[in-house]
Amino acid sequence: MSEPSAVLTQRHGAVLQLTLNAPANRNSLSAPGVLEGLLAGLADLEQDETLRCAVITGAGGAFCSGGDLRQLAHAPEHETRARMTANAALYRGIATASKLVVAAVDGPAFGAGLGLAACCDLVVAGQSARFCCAFVRVGAMPDAALFWSLPGRVGRTRARQMMLLADEVDASEALAMGLADRMAAGGSALPDALALAERLARGPAQAQARIKLGLREAPMGLEEALAFQVAHAPTLFASDDFREGAAAFFEKRAPVFGRPRP
After folding, report:
1. Three-state DSSP class for 166?
2. Which of 45, 138, 167, 219 is deepest in the core (most CB within 10 A)?
3. What is the pLDDT of residues 222-243, one digit of tens each?
4. What is the rounded distance in angstroms from the CA atom of residue 243 to the CA atom of residue 240?
5. Cα 144 to Cα 126: distance, rounded to the nearest angstrom
6. Which domain holds residue 168?
């Protein structure tokens, strides 16, 4: 009998659901197959033209507990450096993907798990969600791209507090500070995250990709912002999606993006 996959994949139309499936390890990124499964899922998202958005979630009541402290405590420095270099591909892949990624957070998102959620484009927090930049509790410094993603979400002051104090943040506080974008109406974040992803999947792909690119390069100075819009906006105004959006506006109907117009 084969071992269950460490990352389960499920397709919902144009949305790809990636479920971390290592509950015995609280879905640690160090659990065998988790990193590889997430990277494979992100590759599928980018390469499959019929996929528009991904949702990352966790099985067994946890989103992701981060790294394995036992492994980190006993590994020589060169092994840890190599592992962190490999892990960087995950955060870079989410941040630089042309398509959108939504985190559905139920239970703890601690350490690198916080980093996994924070680098996603949108975060939906379930009632049980808890976030913690826990590194300083064990004498470590934040990694998982958190020096980029966390200040971008909550500002430098709140990021400094989260990094230095390592306090836990619940779903309602995460929503208030901008760490989460939505708080699930029901118990679990997944249904709301899937509905949000399906909405995004119906949106204009080229515009979404350029918004994601612009936000990744933010904050911009005035001249940088003006140059960015001149470099990218004219292409969108010449696109089929814009023609469809404009036609739908004047015809007082919902636009249907992603189809060529005559």
Report:
1. coil
2. 45
3. 999 999 999 999 999 999 999 9
4. 5
5. 22
6. 7-201
